Amino acid sequence: MTKKRTSSFASIKLLLVVPVLGFVLMFVSAFTNTPAPSSPPASPAIAEDTGETPFVQVEEMPIFPGGDEALLKYIAQNTNYPANARENSIQGRVIVRFCVTEKGGINKISVIQGVDPELDAEAIRVAGSLPTFKPGRQGGRNVPVWYMIPITFSLK
Question: I need a surface site. Which of 17, 102, 149, 152 has the fewest CB within 10 A?
Fold first, then answer.
């Protein structure tokens, strides 16, 4: 009886927080999908920076030739485990972020979550060697889009 009742303003704030939290969870889950591999094309697609700010989410996301399965296969075939990391039994998952340009090339490569400097460098090298993607589209035009891939280093 001595407690104050919750005001209607507090109840309204709670109702506003729930949809915002749901949106944030959907946004975060967009980055947990594991892209798939493909067969290696002829040359890497390192591209120049056009200066346009890359999108995070677009109507049509960039697509690796052959799809996600082909992307994972390409990464597996082109990743070389660094000898020093192998000798020291260093394992883990490196998450690499890069921009797929309007022309499908790759630039702005960086490590989001690293394990070891040698494994991080190898992950950056592999991401830099990726072939041209089908570019992302927004509003009917090709736009630069951020893309993230996990590269797992494990010893058997």
Answer: 17
CA neighbours closer than 13 Å in the CB half-sphere of residue 75:
25
- CATH code of the domain made up of 35-153: 3.30.1150
Residue 109's closest CA among 134, 126, 127, 133? Answer: 127
Domain definitions of the chain by residue range: 35-153
Spatial separation of the C-alpha atoms in residues 94 and 19, rounded to whole Å: 32
Distance linking the first and last C-alpha atoms of the chain: 65
Length of the chain as a residue count: 156
Q: Are 45 and 132 in contact (CB under 8 A)?
A: yes
Token readout for 46 is 């390192």
Residue pair 146/97 in contact by the 8 Å Cβ criterion: yes
Which amino acid would we find at residue 118?
A: E
Ordered per-residue pLDDT tens for the chain, 156 residues: 566 666 666 666 656 666 665 656 555 555 544 444 433 343 344 445 556 788 888 889 999 998 889 999 999 999 999 999 889 989 999 999 999 999 999 999 999 998 889 999 999 999 999 999 999 999 989 999 999 999 999 887
